[in-house]
Design brief:
- It contains 2 helices and no strands.
- It is mostly helical and 95 residues long.
- It has a domain of 33 residues.
- The N and C termini lie far apart (123 Å).
């Protein structure tokens, strides 16, 4: 009975080891490695695309903040409403 138990245990462990080695060998085939590489490159391209989208969104938001802060989006005054500042003092070139 004892020998039968150890024989069954050995067969089970052997089968598990063979399955694990077969899976590992299958992952190391050129076709499988190319598939894994292609998937990794797709993931990298997606990550780069997401990063670029985040940067564009942040830049757009910052540009809107700067435009609002500087008044660049304010409407231009009409021709008759423009007033130039008057300078006081004797800073003329005629002296």
């Amino acid at each position: 009975m004892r020998r039968l138990f150890w024989l069954a245990m050995g067969v089970t462990i052997g089968a598990l080891v063979v399955r694990k080695l077969s899976r590992t060998a299958e992952k190391l085939t050129p076709g499988s490695m190319l598939g894994s590489l292609a998937e990794s490159l797709r993931d990298l391209a997606d990550a780069i695309g997401d990063f670029g989208a985040d940067i564009r969104a942040a830049a757009s938001e910052r540009e809107a903040e700067l435009r609002a802060g500087t008044g660049l989006d304010a409407p231009l005054p009409a021709v008759g409403e423009v007033r130039l500042p008057i300078r006081h003092g004797s800073h003329s070139a005629e002296n």
